[in-house]
Amino acid sequence: MNKPSSSDNGQQNLSLAAIVSMALLALQFGIQPSVTKRYTSPEIIKSTVIFLQEVVKLILAAVGISLSSDGWAKVTAGWTVSSWLRLSLLPAMIYLVQNMCSLLAYQNLDAITYNVLNQTKTLSAALCCYLLLGKRQSGMQMLALVLLLMAALEMEGLLPMDALLPSYWNNRTKTDSQFLPPLSPRRFTHGVIPILVASFLSGLAGAITQKSLQGENRNALLFTMELCVASIILLLISFLRSDDGAQIQQRGFFDQWTLFTILPILTNAAGGILVGLVIKYAGTVQKGFALIFGILISGLLQGSLSKEEIAGGVLAGISLWMHSTYPYLAKTSEKAPIVNGVSTSKSTKVANGGRRERKSRKED
After folding, report:
1. What percent of the chain has pLDDT over 70?
2. CA 283 → CA 17, 227, 289, 309, 357, distances in Å?
């Protein structure tokens, strides 16, 4: 398998594996809403879908390892239970808390406020990558992330086309300045705070995953399997006390299921594997770019691509180009290496000074 694209001085241009993984993730993200809406009943017990999704993802990752050139022996070399707990259990728990916070926010916020605040996860991913991995963003990359946030809001219909022009903001009156609806104290504590926490946890889990896949050089499919096992264990434990667990006992595990329910589970499981591949070969920040292009693909498939979605897609493309073309470059140290306890630059100066002194004596 190709090695992830990384550098001590910043992020390099995207590799072929990164581009292919991001394109496939964008395609999966784009078709997922339509497939889920068509083949998943609203009355279905959602945790049963998540549970089967993790099982299918586990099977797909195992098949992928079996068919790969590396094979099980090379992929699992040096694997231990302690390393699994250290690298996979924490992200699985973070993802579980993130899903709970997202659900709480979804129940207490309107769609506009939820979508706006949910788009901050790309910025949180950049922040967490800096805090955990030391990966800094250049000025142009930070500008690209802001453009990506604007692209997301544009494609969601939350920003008008004119908002991309400075004159739009200069001509706005005070009465028009309320971008988001007013929030009650409960909506703030049970809506705004949970979605901001969920967005931060998304970036945190992504940074931890990137550290495991790139820093620990973990195989992406093996890490997906480890994450699935941890998630399945946590879900089984939650079934003992949760409302979904009680619903499963009353209605049965496969209540409201059909033969076609497996289709969105397969696509979502494939998306989970693609997320791991994108993080390994591109990074958790670049994952946000793939998801934004997925929104554009979703609009194309629905046959109702608006001018806002087209503008947002163009803006996302520009931001991706900026982010890949202008990486952060660390300042190189001007200190010369030390040889035998003496700086080479200092010894060179001394040697040059000695030669100059001998030359002056000859001239005398």
Report:
1. 73
2. 12, 18, 10, 25, 56
